[in-house]
């Protein structure tokens, strides 16, 4: 049965909101609610796994990721997350298997660097995994990373040696030496393996055994298939694919599609002879246009493409090629008109945006150029980022575009546009994007998403990102000062690049220097704020507050940020936390001041009354802590006026009036509350509340009388007798003889087992 889509969407939105606030328990509850509607929704299961993982519930995280992965077995990210959860549970073998599966899927999707990361993770959890080392060796060899490839050969050789497979160890070692003949460690290991083999064979001969039998007998586990070791000794002689700019790629695609359309066979397709003759004419024009274009005859090619369009064959490949030809002739307006027709087509979206940016830049319209160039980078960046960060990345690019356009700094905008063009026209830019994103994602684990655009503003950005990655690795090994040195080295050429400062703050935190880390984070957040990157500033402020939740200097910055961007409810929540911090520091006046500031914001939220009541309750609590009874009365009377049925306000006023020796007002307040209970049909709650009040004020006769009467009205004979007896004693003690007689008469009317004693007591009282 299909679930309720509206309820599902509401639950997913609630989960996303809770995740943004890092309230992972609440997020998990919301994802579970969503799954009650659609139990096999991959996004909901993924979100649930993330919420459990973030809250340290690795077992539940593994279960959720496992279900999601079963439903989407080709999603490598899910397999990676499953591997991480299993790793945290200490299930090394299963974690290794998940990481390996993730790497395999990444390879199928041509995400080779991400595949390598999976294989590295697999090796980390199971250092003796032959399959993982082999996969990583193939990756390094394919990318001509000789040193790393030889390192994997050495690792494999040691594994085979330890398992008793000396011949396989020698074979892998020799393969490593084919890649790097002078590798001293491989040479040393090969010599060791040969000596081990000679020693083992000599021992076997002395024992009368065939040497090869001993060498082929597995001592630990069975060998993998023999073809696991069938590597190529050299590299392919074929050159790697030349990946030009997005425009170059789109041009090749357009030419290919046009050529294929020319050679498409229409025989038997149901077309008439006239239609076939018409197609032949168009095909001739297309062939002519392609020929002129490839031979550099621009004018003739433009004419041919125009005739193709006049013939009614104006598909995206024709329009895109015509736009490129106009661009070459510096007819930018004509070029823009063509690219605007192709920019929405999936095959030409990237190339069209890039070409539009170039045209606008050439005409001096920097703002328009920048808008298209940033869109190119956004598309490229989104293609590589992890799915759960996509929405954040989209928002950041929107703000990035607005930021450059609103600042009006044409020189800065032009410099940024030029850097983007330079990057996107270099050979192999797509591989560089993947590597850069992989390194940027490690920063995302410790804070807000970082855009590729932000990285490209830094000179020698790839070296900077490598330094950050090295710093993280050093920190993991406890080499904190080396990690800090790596960051400071990077700052020498990119002192304004905030991710470096974020890494420094992280290292300080891992060293236990919390105060230093918080100060660094605040400076970073302030800088993001000044730059107009509110989302990133918010995330960093929140990161600082997690480390120092009682820091009363940081939270006001976050409040100001929320207010300036119209996020009033978030600001109010932070106000309450800030005031609570002051209360815990025994600074009651400051806490009251913060609450008053929050009240001034309340008219700007939809649920004004609810928020006002909530804050007034906090102010009332503050007054109670300061023993300011009269001030507290004023506050709770305001609450009662806003919310007449607010139980807490009524009960607190009852207590306050007794403290202020105003019993009449206390009883009026109590009677109002009891009336509300009766009107709402909450009589059962009445006994609980009256019982609590009588327990607090046991000698107050009117309170005891009301509790006794309530039990009488409900037919609770035993409870009524108990309270009537205590009421009578209180009345006698204070000399209220007439009232005492009435109370005893009420007891006698209930016919208790010892009614005679009450009758005698009544006679004694009557004689007085």
CATH superfamily of the largest domain: Tetratricopeptide repeat domain
E-strand count: 0
Spans of at least 5 consecutive residues with low confidence: 211-243, 266-277
Q: What is the CATH architecture annotation of the largest domain?
A: Alpha Horseshoe
CATH topology of the largest domain: the name is: Serine Threonine Protein Phosphatase 5, Tetratricopeptide repeat
- Determine the fraction of residues in helical runs and give it as a percent range: over 70%
Structural class estimated from helices and strands: mainly alpha
Distance from N terminus to C terminus (CA atoms, Å) equals: 81 Å
In total, how many domains does the architecture comprise?
A: 7
Which band does the percent of strand residues land in?
under 5%
Give the CA-based shape.
elongated
Mind summarizing the main beta sheet? none
Gyration radius, in Å: 39 Å
Number of helices: 40
CATH class of the largest domain: Mainly Alpha
Q: Provide mean pLDDT, rounded.
A: 80
Tell me the quaternary state.
Answer: single chain
